[in-house]
Write a structure and sequence with these properties.
Layout (H helix, E strand, L loop, with lengths): L5 E3 L4 H18 L6 H5 L6 E7 L2 E8 L4 E6 L8 H12 L4 E5 L3 H9 L2 E13 L15 E4 L6 H11 L11 H8 L9 E6 L5 E10 L6 E9 L9 H14 L4 E7 L3 H9 L3 E11 L12
C-alpha cells in the first residue's frame, strides 16, 4: 500500500540507492533527468528529503534545497496514482515558498503545477549544436590574453574568485564554494584539461575567465559547456565569444559529436554569444512557485 510523503533529514543507504535507480528509470522514460547534478550529489547528505514508498519500495521522491528550489520524480510505472501531487503538496505545506523545477517542461508536470496554483517564474534553456569541421581549432584572443589548463592544487582559489564575481547574483552557480568544487573535481567526469583558464597581463596576470567543459560519461558522444565565466572587470573586451569557442575546440578534439549547454532564458548577452556560435534550442526546464511569488532574476553574464 502506498504511504504518504515521509520526511527525512538524512536518507538511508538503501533509500539513496533506490532514489538513484528510480531517477534513472524516470530519465529513460521521459528523455530528461528529473534530478540535476546538485540534487544527486546531495542525496547522501543531510537535507529536506521526502519519500513515498509502496511497502519497502521507493516510488516517489522530492528534495528541497536551502534556497527553496525543489526537484522530484515518480517512478514511471507508479504514475497516475497521485504520488506527484502528494509529494508537492507535502513540500508546500512544509515550506510555502518552495519552488519546484519541472525538467523538460513535460505536459504532466505543467498540468500538476496548474492544479496546485503554481506559475512559471524561471526558464532554463538547453541549447545544442553538432560539432563541425574546424571546431577543433583554437580561436584567437586579443593581444596579451593567454589561456591554459587548470592545475589542481594551485588554481582552485582563482577559479572560485572569478566564479563568485561572474555569478554574484546567480542562485546556484554563485554558491559554488571550495567543498563544492572539490566534490565536483572528485567526480568520474572531471578532467583538469577540460577546465580552460584565461589570464590577462592588463589585470596583473590573474585569471579573468574560465570555460569548464564536461563529458559525462567520460568518452561519451555529447560534451557540455558546463560553466563559462568572465570577471566583470573584462566585460566588453570581446572575450566571451573566443572563450566559448576555446571550450568547443577542446571538446571537438576529445571526439564528441554534439555539444550542449544550459543558459537562463533572460540572459540575453549569453544567448547572443551562443547563437553566434551556432547553438539552437534543444529543451527547456522551468521553475514554478506560488502565484504570489515574484519572478526569479539571475545575473547576466558578460
Amino acid at each position: 500500500m502506498t504511504a504518504g510523503a515521509t520526511p527525512f533529514a538524512r536518507l538511508s543507504d538503501d533509500h539513496v540507492q533506490q532514489v538513484r535507480a528510480g531517477a534513472d528509470l524516470a530519465a529513460v522514460h521521459d528523455g530528461v533527468a528529473p534530478l540535476s547534478e546538485a540534487f544527486v550529489l546531495a542525496l547522501p547528505r543531510e537535507g529536506d528529503h521526502l519519500v513515498v514508498t509502496d511497502g519497502d519500495a521507493v516510488v516517489g521522491y522530492a528534495a528541497t534545497a536551502a534556497d527553496g528550489s525543489l526537484e522530484a520524480f515518480v517512478v514511471p510505472e507508479q504514475r497516475g496514482r497521485g504520488i506527484g501531487r502528494t509529494l508537492l503538496t507535502a513540500a508546500l505545506e512544509r515550506r510555502p515558498d518552495v519552488r519546484p523545477w519541472a525538467h523538460g517542461d513535460l505536459p504532466a508536470s505543467r498540468a500538476l503545477g496548474e492544479r496546485l496554483g503554481l506559475q512559471v517564474v524561471r526558464e532554463l534553456l538547453v541549447l545544442s549544436r553538432n560539432v563541425q569541421p574546424g571546431d577543433e581549432q583554437n580561436p584567437a584572443f586579443p593581444d596579451g590574453v593567454r589561456h591554459r589548463t587548470f592545475r589542481p592544487g594551485e588554481d582552485e582559489g582563482s577559479l572560485l574568485a572569478v566564479n563568485a564575481a561572474a555569478f554574484v547574483d546567480h542562485p546556484e552557480q554563485g554558491a559554488l564554494d571550495a567543498p563544492g568544487l572539490a566534490e565536483r573535481m572528485a567526480q568520474p567526469w572531471f578532467d583538469p584539461e577540460g577546465v580552460l583558464l584565461l589570464e590577462d597581463p592588463a589585470h596583473g596576470e590573474r585569471v579573468v575567465g574560465f570555460h569548464w567543459t564536461k563529458i559525462d560519461p567520460p568518452g561519451g558522444e555529447i560534451g557540455e559547456v558546463y560553466v563559462v565565466g568572465l570577471h566583470p572587470d573584462v566585460h566588453g573586451r570581446g572575450l566571451a565569444g573566443p572563450l566559448t569557442r576555446l571550450g568547443l575546440a577542446h571538446l571537438a578534439r576529445r571526439g564528441v559529436t554534439e555539444v550542449e549547454l544550459y543558459v537562463e532564458a533572460d540572459n540575453h548577452p549569453a544567448l547572443a554569444t551562443y547563437r553566434r556560435a551556432g547553438f539552437t534550442r534543444k529543451a527547456v526546464h522551468v521553475m514554478y512557485a506560488r502565484r504570489s511569488s515574484p519572478p526569479v532574476h539571475d545575473a547576466v553574464q558578460g
